[in-house]
Amino acid sequence: MKKLFLLFSHTLTSMQEENAKAFLEVEQFVTLPKKLQNLWSNIPPHLTTLHDHLAPLKAYISKEAKRGDLFLIQGDFGGCYEMVNFVKDLGFTAVHSTTMRDVVEKTVNGKVEKFSRFEHVIFRLY
Question: How many structural domains comprise the chain?
C-alpha cells in the first residue's frame, strides 16, 4: 500500500487527495503524530542549523516509511531542503503541491481588502 507522508502544515484539500490517488497512486495519507507536527510547523527561526531539531522527524521516517512511499514536503525553506535531501537519500520520492492563485480586491467598510484564493493544480517532484 503506497502512502503519502504529510510534512505539511495544512489540511489536504479534496482536490489534492483525488490528485494524489489518481496520479501518484497513493492509497493512504499519513499525518504526523501531534508532537512531530508541532516540531515541523514551528521551526525556530533563530537556529543556525536544523540537524538536531529535525532529528526526531528523521527517526520517525526511518522507522515508519516503507519502499514506494512518498513525501509531501512544504514549509520552512531550510527544513524542506533538509528533509527533501533526507528522504531522497533513503530512496523515497518527495513532492510539493503547485497552486493557482486568484486575487480579489473588495471594498469593505470603506477599506480595500485583498483576498487570495489558492487552488491545487498538480504535485511536482522535487
Answer: 1
